[in-house]
Amino acid sequence: MTAQFTPAGTLTAEDLGTVHLIGVGGVGMLGVARLLLTRGIRVSGSDLREWPSLAGLRALGGTIYLSHETTNLDGVDTVVYSSAIPQDHLELVEARRRGLRVLHRSEALAAAMTGRRAIAVAGTHGKTTTTSMVTMVLQQAGVDPSFVIGGEISEVGSGAHHGTGEHFVVEADESDRSFLIYRPYVSIITNVEADHLNTYGDYATLEAAFVEFARLTDPAGFIITCADDAGGRRLAESLRAEGRRVFTYGEAADADLRLTEISSSARGVRYLAAIDGRSLGEFRLPVPGRHMGLNSASAVLAAYLLELPLEAAEAALAVFPGVRRRFERKGVADGVLVYDEYAYHPTSMTLALQTLREVAGDGRLIVVFQPYRLYRTRDNQAEIAEALAIADEVVLLEVFGPGELRQPGEGSAALIAAVDLPADRKVFVDSWEAAPVEVARRARPGDVVVTMGAPPISLMGDELLAALGERPAGSATVDPVGAAPVLGDPVPGGATAGGDGAALGGTAAPGGTAPTAG
User: Fold this and answer.
1) What is the pLDDT of residue 464?
2) 160: which residues sit within 8 A by CB, 6+ positions away?
3) Which of 171, 174, 193, 207 is catalytic?
4) Active site residue 127
């Protein structure tokens, strides 16, 4: 798949001329658009839905079209697309017919990084949070990095910035092999686990791609990986045998940056850090979860190796607000606390739900889950079901899989049956509108509800809060049933995913559309 991409070279962002982004509403595309606009480059973009974040692009001077038309390309020099955009998309076909420069999102990012010291963060999960932490540490150190993150840092409201400093922090996506385009000065690999096997075929090929990514690191730079992760440890051993500069972090006794006395509660996480036996002091984060502490350790190690003041790392992490869609608190209604969480891989789901259990305390944990991609749901069904069983109750929507065709026996109906919970504590709803109603029936004051999984589910938080706030007192009761029921009307066929025109293989958000994958 990498054959269609051009590795990083001498092309700069300014060489791109006027840039048009297809599916500009996707979170990854938003970051690229914002970065280019703040560099003074003329930008337009097209999408099928008016996402709130598009107003910010207009405020920066971007031109946004809410339809896909060939005329959108008039006056354009370069067209940028993501892997979510099909190759027969009418704007992509027209761009090639006109002989315009056509770049994958990662190629455009690589051009923007030309001349900078890139810090690329890869891994099966934890990328967005870790990239955000590294960015905040560098900002606190006063080096004003550029950055493009696959999410928005909460309370900052931006996933991209054009800085004046020499560093450029980027989240590197392995899902389509496009992370092999970058030529980083620092490579951070949070973990290596089985995922995106539709691209790689098997785990060995996926692992080999991470090794290849690490080998692209500048010899004058360094590689950081997690000693507690089996895949990360194998990667470190292999690269060190080649003579490459690799540094590890974790609780493992042989980690270069070792964490001890980790504790996590609803108030946050803290730990002690030491490198080569020398204490670096205590670090605290206001967000809970041992995995959050582990992610932050990679940022501490990067700061240490870049010879930045560790006081900056300590200060930045102490006020780290989290990342939108990563353990994001949406609000409270009728005594029920509602969160949103992006996790859809079984490992990240397990870590998130274990942390939410800490937050729930004596209350119950109810998860509203929308699986992401049929192949992942099918191949990891047992592991996903095991993670969901951490919750007290599960409300499951159909799989979100743009462009995928569901075969008999696939999808959420099979998954709900595999969840090891009593039948009256799990339910499959096959319409978007049924989920808030079901949560309002089940949740009690003191409970924690989390929407989790594929991008559309992030839109449900406000609806859950409204449904909880409008219910009459004492209405949260559930009648026991003999089997997990299916509630709601089927989703009409032929829905399309906003921004790329791909078939929507699952429950849609209100209005029959779902966010563009960027």
Assistant:
1) 86
2) 30, 31, 32, 34, 35, 38, 147, 148, 149
3) 171
4) yes
